[in-house]
Amino acid sequence: MVSSTIRNKDNGEGPTVELATIGIDVAKNVFGVHGVDALGRVSVRTRLARDRLLEFLGKVPPCLVGLEACGSSHYWARKIGQLGHRVKLMSPRFVKAYRKNDKNDANDAEAICEAVTRPSMRFVPIKSEQQQEIQALHRVRQQLLKSRTALVNQVRGLFAEHGLVVARGISHARRLLVDNLADPERNGLSDFFVETLIEMAERLRFLDERVRAYDLKIKRLFQQDERCQRLAKIEGVGTLVATALVAAVGNASEFKSGRELSAWLGLVPRQHSSGNRNVLLGISKRGDRYLRTLMIHGARAALRTADRGTNRRSIWLNRLRHERGANVAAVALANKNARVVWALLTRGEKYRPPVEVSQDRTQRIAILRDRPPDAVRRAVAENRLKPKREPA
Asked: Can you give the CATH number for the domain in which 10 is found?
């Protein structure tokens, strides 16, 4: 049992209280603090200004400190950890169940203090400054892409008002802008409208340059990190995916297994089961949407070249695509890649490419690939697409 002197904020004096666990409700200016002793009895229940939080925790001997994973929580977790405390972050979704009565700072801090002591609680890995800096690059680049997409959609809408239909895609809008600015009289555009188009073309050019600049920054970070280069050997994992994964999970030491990492990314099926009736739905879509989107888009890119592959992974992908469709196959590959990423990061190993299969078996699969889905399902049922066992 630890003890510390918590002094009154008015006169600097106070009684000696015993603290084993502290819950802190992180806010912008005023933080709610709830502390209990080893027996669960409330020892501290107060509010602290932002500039007094570290001073307060500096007088407390090392104990367990719980925080909700939110804006600035990783910063406070690093600062509090430097004082010798054991800090754990939790998702607000899991903390909500422990809150009593109405929502306020005091009740939130009490719920955090209670939740952090639960042995079955799932915790969020604390990010380092470097991880947050890499994430900042991805977030700014993502915002630039959103701004560019919005600008291109506006260009397409304005052209449609003048009877010019633009196909989807930035390249089509960019080409139409260049053509009409070079010869506005061909489509009867007025000088006033052309001035507007010139300004929009300049903004589009600026956004293109900024996106390229951030791509170069991310590429330099990728070349400097050995973990990213190992992850990029996986089919469907490139520069963007590798750097985003390292920035989000680090060495993946907080996850017990690859499936846990995949579930954290929202790539596993949602379950709605009761009794003996098991129902699996679509993917849960929990966690970081940006990272999950990158993983699935990378899997789609790998899926395009799977037809030419003769290894077990390509054969598995082709079979799954014929049975369930390209979207399900892409998500399944992203799920598998997440598990491989966990193994590479936690064990420090290099990626081993999938094993090639014999040529005759590859030919049989190529023939089945051109047949209707029913024929493929029958072949799977007859085990004709399963890999042959090597003789003992």
From this structure: 3.30.420.140
Q: Which of residues 224, 252, 276 is at a domain's end? A: 224
pTM of the shown model: 0.79
Dihedral sign from CA coordinates of 46, 47, 53, 56: negative
**Same domain assignment for residues 277 and 360:** yes
Q: Cβ(321)–Cβ(376) under 8 Å? A: no
What is the rounded distance in angstroms from the CA atom of residue 68 to the CA atom of residue 121? 12
User: Which residue range forms the structural domain that includes residue 88?
Assistant: 3-124
Domain shared by 345 and 370, yes or no: yes
Q: How many domains does the chain have?
A: 3
Residue-by-residue DSSP string for 10-46: TTS---EEE-SEEEEE--SSEEEEEEE-TTS-EEEEE
Rounded Cα–Cα distance for residues 132 and 78 (Å): 12
Please give the Cα distance from 94 to 142 (Å, whole number): 28
Phi-psi region of 231 (alpha: psi -120 to 50; beta: other; left: phi over 0): alpha
Q: What is the residue type of 86?
A: R
Angle, helices 326-347/289-304, rounded to nearest 10 degrees: 110
Q: How far apart are CA 201 and CA 151, in angstroms?
A: 9
Show the tokens assigned to 75: 């910063």
245 with 369, same domain: the answer is: yes
Domain membership of residue 375 (yes or no) is yes
Token pair of 316, please? 């598995």
Residues 153 and 215 in one domain: yes
Domain boundary among 224, 257, 278: 224
| pLDDT, tens digit (0-9, with 9 covering 90-100), for 244-277 | 999 998 888 888 899 999 998 999 888 888 888 8
CA proximity to 100, closest of 21, 23, 20 = 23
User: Same domain for 136 and 172?
Assistant: yes
Cβ-contact 43, 17 below 8 angstroms? yes
392 belongs to a structural domain: no
SS3 per-residue string spanning 259-303 = HHHHHHCCCCEEECCECCECCEEEECCCCCHHHHHHHHHHHHHHH
Co-location of 247 and 366 in the same domain: yes
Cβ neighbours for 92, distance < 8 A, ≥ 6 positions apart: 68, 69, 70
What are the tens digits of pLDDT across the range 191-239?
A: 888 899 899 999 999 999 999 999 999 999 999 999 999 999 999 999 9
